[in-house]
Amino acid sequence: MKGAIAVVGCALACSCLGMEPPTGDIVPPSVMEFRPQGNRVQLDAQISVLFSEPVDPNTGVDGLVMVAMAELVDREFLVDLDRPPLSSRRAQIPLACTIETDAGGSRVILQPVDPLQPSREYLVVVSAAVCDLVGNPLVVDLRFDERGRAQGRYTHVLHEFTTVAAPPDPDPDPDPDPVSGLLFTEILANPAGSESAGEYAEILNAGSDKVDLTGFRLDDTGGVDEGDMLGPCAEGRPTVLSPGEAALLVGESFVAPADLLPNTVVVCTDRSTLTPRGLKNSGGEVLVLKDVNGRELTRYGGWIDLSSREGCSATRLSLTAPDDPENWAIPDGEPCRSPGWIE
């Protein structure tokens, strides 16, 4: 018999915190099966996790069984998830889902409220804080020793799958224009000197039309948040980017370097730093540029660790290749950054 359905942030309310220690049943639960699997998962897929026994759904701590875009799940997120509840910032990462239980409480079923995005990697994450009905915590590699005692590692469990590609346009334009033609081309996350005065994200207008960047948004959560609005750094400063030109996205404390090309368009967020806490030198921060309607235009997945390369940028290698890790690197030699320059 299926349990009640609730709309939450893809979270099973279950934690061993505050429960009485088990006195009879001392066999911990483990994950037996994840569904779906593979690299052609449908966008309306139902996601399920089968446990070796019923798990406790009534402890009241959200965020213990969830699904999210794989690129948003890092080590810090997993540490947070294993010590619930999630922080307010990370609580936005799990997809909104309906949740129900089946198989007597042994299977947790997640149904995303919105369709999954095509050609994306997703992670199903089960927190180490999940427990059974008597408080035994989740283990991995459950086994029994020669005396019949249960053994295993107390940790979270991850499962990755990839969605199918988007269906082709039934009536494609024989020579369609790019949606916007805007591309991230360079990210300086670890400038020499002040972070807020030096960091920037460079974009290129690779399209055929002029683009006014006023009202566009820069988001550093991989598309989860709305992002910070962009606009002129000072009244009357240009915000229109012509085809083939590059622009710098910066915070209000940015100081233009001496080698910045003249007449480079520079637009600002409404804070002193480019992103709420400045760009992460070590990578992992997913930047998304959105148009005035909130539509994603280009992204940089934080693929390059710049912590040991002060003053050097992560640079896009090809203007025609997609937004992916293989298309980014740190330039060899000097200069290892090029604000406003497009070769």
Keywords:
five-stranded antiparallel β-sheet, 343 residues, mainly beta, Immunoglobulin-like
Please characterize this protein's 3D structure.
- By secondary structure, the protein is mostly beta strands.
- The protein is built from two helices and 23 strands.
- The protein is elongated and about 75 Å long.
- The N terminus is likely disordered.
Content of β-strand:
25-35%
Strand order of the largest sheet: 16-19-18-12-11-22-23
Total helical segments? 2
CATH class bucket of the largest domain: Mainly Beta
**SS-based structural class?**
mainly beta
Number of strands: 23
Q: What CATH architecture of the largest domain do you see? A: Sandwich
Structure summarized in a few sentences:
The chain has 343 residues and is mainly beta.
Record the SSE blueprint:
Elements: E1 6-8, E2 31-35, E3 47-51, E4 65-69, H1 75-81, E5 97-102, E6 107-112, E7 121-126, E8 140-144, E9 150-153, E10 157-162, E11 182-188, H2 195-198, E12 200-205, E13 211-212, E14 217-219, E15 228-229, E16 231-232, E17 240-241, E18 246-250, E19 265-268, E20 287-290, E21 296-300, E22 314-316, E23 328-329
Parallel strand pairs: 18-19
Antiparallel strand pairs: 1-5, 2-3, 3-6, 4-7, 5-6, 7-10, 8-9, 11-12, 11-22, 12-18, 13-17, 14-15, 14-20, 16-19, 20-21, 22-23
